Amino acid sequence: MRERGFVEPAMNGPVEQLVSCLSPGTVVTDPAIVANYRFDWARDPSAGVPAAVVRARSTADVQTVLRWASENRVPVVPRGAGSSLAGGASGVEGGVTLSLELMRDVSVDVGNRVAVAQAGAITADVKTAAAAHGLWYPPDPSSYEMSSIGGNAATNAGGLCCLKYGVTGDYVLGMEVVLADGRIIRLGGPRLKDVAGLPLLRLFVGSEGTLGVITELTLRLLPPPPAPATLTATFGSVEAAAEAVVAITRQVRPAMLELMDRVAINAVEDLIRMDLDRSSEALLLARSDAPGAAAADELAIIEAACQASGAREVYTTTEQDEGDAFIHARRSALPAMERLGVLLIEDVGVPVPALPELVRGIRGIAEARNTIISVIAHAGDGNTHPVIAYPPGDDEAEARARLAFGDVMMLAIELGGTITGEHGVGRLKTPWLLDQLGHDSMALTRQIKDALDPAHILNPGVMLPEEPSA
Amino acid sequence: MRERGFVEPAMNGPVEQLVSCLSPGTVVTDPAIVANYRFDWARDPSAGVPAAVVRARSTADVQTVLRWASENRVPVVPRGAGSSLAGGASGVEGGVTLSLELMRDVSVDVGNRVAVAQAGAITADVKTAAAAHGLWYPPDPSSYEMSSIGGNAATNAGGLCCLKYGVTGDYVLGMEVVLADGRIIRLGGPRLKDVAGLPLLRLFVGSEGTLGVITELTLRLLPPPPAPATLTATFGSVEAAAEAVVAITRQVRPAMLELMDRVAINAVEDLIRMDLDRSSEALLLARSDAPGAAAADELAIIEAACQASGAREVYTTTEQDEGDAFIHARRSALPAMERLGVLLIEDVGVPVPALPELVRGIRGIAEARNTIISVIAHAGDGNTHPVIAYPPGDDEAEARARLAFGDVMMLAIELGGTITGEHGVGRLKTPWLLDQLGHDSMALTRQIKDALDPAHILNPGVMLPEEPSA
After folding, report:
1. Matching PROSITE patterns, A to Z (chains A, B) (predicted)?
2. What are phi and psi of B437, to 5 degrees?
3. Which CATH fold would you assign to the domain B229-414?
4. Neighbours of B275 (CB within 10 A)
5. Residues in CB range of A376: below 8 A, 6 or more apart
6. What does the pLDDT read at residue A149?
7. Phi and psi for B402 in degrees, rounded to 5?
8. Could you state, in order of their start, the residue ranges of all structural domains in chain B?
């Protein structure tokens, strides 16, 4: 049996050794600062307080930390912007949180049409750098103005445009990654097709920091798409909107197809006043960036599908500003709902035809658990974000909300779906991963983890339940 | 040190045991039939003669073979249609070739817009089954009428449309795979986004049968694209055509962008008489399937780029039949060149801006090695197929051709490229894999191989050089 006993929180000896290996100020142990690295956006109450935070300035710093951590068997939590909604960057008691927030260089290689970004760069900065050269980095997680590109790659983050343009992993051509033992590996490069060797690059995309720490990414850029046209449609029920989504995606591949339910519509309207119809049960938001007249053709198909599913009102616009305002409304839904209480944010996905059934099932869960669940969704690819809200400080309501949180994941699994479409498993959803994957896939996961991180120092508790110390 | 001693070719005992575990006729030892499974399309002279061929009829058969092989430490070569151009399915002396050619069921789930195909299904049959339901399976390796879908997934096969529509892996949503020890694992499913757990599915796509045997695939289908418009352009030099490719891909993303040099043009013209200009040094073939009038706009940009790079003649057509005839000509290039002698088919890729330099370098190698090298290419993504030809039976010419084969791969590596863009490493290119990946990536490859196939029974000699028996 392999030993996996982690050192105790009070590990002054090893931490002092680490401090001596790095530039002054790189290792932070001031409790007031360290406290800021306990939680990520999931605010998982079981998050631990790290013994130290390392703010790496270079790949060499990352290597130093991982060598030291392997030697001393200290848990390491890699962290970009700390915007995980799944507890993927939340602290481990007595461990080290390895922050890449200072590593945020971005450069654009116009000839090869790639961006090369350090892992801590904010995704918006990558998009801006590409745009400055007339190029486009498509992935657009809702958090793109706050999340890091390294975190996006570590979770294989999706977003609004991935229905047509794919997810983060589709744009990762190369990476530099530091393994648990400190080896620095460069994978891939600015080549559009490369099948030489095992798909090692693919193994790290979406591995949530459990197999290595991504320090740099080479990202594919595209010529920018044509200006989009935008459609909104309101419905008398969420199911009707979901039926429309099924009908639309059978015929066309819009550049965006989002859904908000009544609770979300009203929360947004409270926050930013868009004149959304507060009485409708659901709003669909679709975009087409097909070139020229084809965009109107595509929106006509979408409109017809909405009408056939009983839409109350359909509105289209080719005004970019007006369309962008609707997208802004959709992106504001989560922050807007924070006024409703403490939020538990789901990320379940199902095959698109199962969307109406998922929506019905979620309503049943909300009733059974006596809790509020609002549904917003990247509906076009079946990825939904049911949001469970409860009043702060109400322990009973919180308990009911947490039960509902599990119920929704189990429902998605029953419908042939997934517990996470784009946020990752993190510490928050690890207890349900076995239910989705089954024992054999979990065993395979463990075999790969054991091969690459034999002491399980990297992001322990993510994907694989933590084992008691030996 | 782990034992990896394979059993001797004469392994009657174990083979008889295997025969008794499977239905009559499943295990073939008749030397006349077994001989047909020695080579794949790479016709690597070092291919071995298998002791037996198993024609699996079910996943359970595959499981039986792998359990038996693990127990008896017999090498297993998984084989679909045997169309590997890299020796990925060529025989191992005394081993078992596990053929999936009888497992070729294909069904289409219209609601979920997926095809479910057994691994031995021919790729064309997947495309036909999808089309029968008004849907489209995009990947189109040149071999799609002969190659198997399992082999396509095992190599992450590309093709002509992948410049715009991606490679096989982009359409693999789920799979059933049998591990070396016989465990059957189901990964993914008909979900468009799913990040639950390590990206195990991605690890098997492109693993060339070295980590497991894929038995079934769930494949994403799309609505069919608009009818394409086609452009051909002739050039006075291959470099000029390559320059045009660089200029085109800076501005648009065509549905196809292929290149043939003078040798290929003339070989095709000898075979099928298309009235191609035999005197031009290069032909570019581009397609746009942008909807409506946008196709003409896209071809106009492509035409302008060709003219600016000194094209001799540019021709465009919206006649589908005429366009298809040009595509047929391009697809016929490899078979047409078989008249030139014995062929060694390269698959090197470089970043697109390095294409002209690659083309120049290849000409230099042809001169230095006194051999014929013709270049055909999926030019738009930098993936080229230099074809080296030598007269059959001429040992000296063959030796020079084999040296040139290595030279071209080393040139691609020097230019920041890859030794294989879509055919895979196979046994043929394994000696050069270290040159591309470096020691650390090879060590990582070995760690994963050891974790999943500790006795190295699966496709030995592919990606990792065979070790001498213990």
Report:
1. FAD_PCMH (PS51387)
2. -85, -30
3. Vanillyl-alcohol Oxidase; Chain A, domain 3 (3.40.462)
4. 6
5. A258, A259, A260, A261, A264, A330, A333, A334, A384, A385, A387
6. 98
7. -70, -35
8. 106-220, 229-414
- What pLDDT score was predicted for residue A467? 67
What residues form DSSP beta bridges with B374?
A: B387
Q: In this structure, are residues A194 and B441 in contact, taking their beta carbons and an 8 Å threshold?
A: no
Interface list for B 199-258 with A (CB within 8 A): 199-200, 202-203, 205-207, 210-211, 222-223, 249-253
**CB-based contact B196 A433, cutoff 8 Å:** yes
Q: What angle do CA A178, A166, A449 make, to 5 degrees?
A: 30
Round to whole Å and give the CA distance between B175 and B150: 10
Collect all residues of chain A within an 8 Å Cβ-Cβ radius of residue B451: 447-448, 450-451
- The per-residue pLDDT for range B308-321, each reduced to its tens digit, is 999 999 999 999 99
Instruction: Please name the residue of chain A whose CA is at the shortest distance from the CA of residue B435.
Output: A196
- DSSP codes joined into one string, B141-197: -TTTTTSBHHHHHHHT---STHHHH--GGGGEEEEEEEETTS-EEEEE-S-S----S
* B437–A contact, CB cutoff 8 A: yes
H or E element, residue B436: helix B430-452
Beta-carbon separation of A351 and B197 below 8 A: no
| Test the A interface: residue of B152, B193, B436 with most A CBs within 10 Å | B193
Tokens of A436: 């989705």
Distance CA B313, CA B336 (A): 24
Query: Average pLDDT, stretch B85-94?
Result: 97
Sheet holding A96-99, edge to edge: A27-28, A52-55, A96-99, A76-79
A332 in reach of chain B (CB within 8 A): no
Partner residue opposite B450 with nearest CB, options A193, A199, A451: A451
Report the pLDDT averaged over residues B395-411: 98
In A, residues 22-81, which contact B (CB 8 Å cutoff)?
A: none
Instruction: Name the 3-class secondary structure at A176.
Output: strand
- Two tokens at B257? 């962008």
The answer to whether residues A427 and A87 touch, using CB atoms and an 8 Å cutoff, is yes
The yes/no answer on whether domain A106-220 falls in CATH 3.40.50.720 is no
Cβ-based contacts of A186 with chain B (< 8 Å): 438, 441
Q: Nearest by CB to A198, which of B382, B418, B445?
A: B445
Taking the CA of residue B210 and the nearest CA in chain A, the distance in Å comes to 9
Amino acid identity, position A356 = P
Q: Would you call A349 and B192 a contact, using CB atoms and an 8 Å cutoff?
A: yes
For every residue of A98-129, DSSP letters joined together read EE-TT---EEEETTTTEEEEETTSBHHHHHHH
Asked if the Cβ–Cβ distance from B351 to A223 is below 8 Å, we say no
Q: For A207-235, write each residue's pLDDT tens digit.
A: 999 999 999 999 999 999 999 999 999 99
Mind listing the pLDDT tens digit for each residue in A113-144?
Answer: 999 999 999 999 999 999 999 999 999 999 99
The SS3 assignment for A219 reads strand
